[in-house]
Design goal:
It contains 2 helices and no strands. The longest helix is centred in the first third of the chain and has 31 residues. Helix 1 runs antiparallel to helix 2. It has a domain of about 30 residues. The two termini are about 35 Å apart. With about 80 residues, the chain is mostly helical.
Length: about 80
């Protein structure tokens, strides 16, 4: 059975979602800049949320469904079962 993120439609939707998220971050950044200039303490949590949103948007845009691809670890990082 194929995972939900393996299809081309899900991949396209995730990438479009990343674009939408980045599109929401731009006006938020302008608003946050106004908060910083005004010296409002609300600027700090807004900046953190914008950073997380921009990071998630770029990750979705660049990798899409491959974000959930399995990662192989070297033997050094695997559990030894001691």
């Amino acid at each position: 059975m194929m995972a939900w993120h393996d299809g081309w439609l899900a991949d396209a939707a995730l990438r479009i979602g990343g674009l939408v998220l980045l599109g929401l971050v731009v006006p938020g950044g302008r608003w946050d800049g106004a908060l910083v200039r005004a010296g409002d303490v609300l600027a700090y949590p807004v900046s953190a949320l914008l950073f997380v949103g921009a990071s998630a948007g770029v990750a979705l845009l660049l990798w899409g469904g491959r974000l959930w691809a399995p990662v192989t670890l070297s033997a050094r990082w695997e559990s030894r079962g001691d």
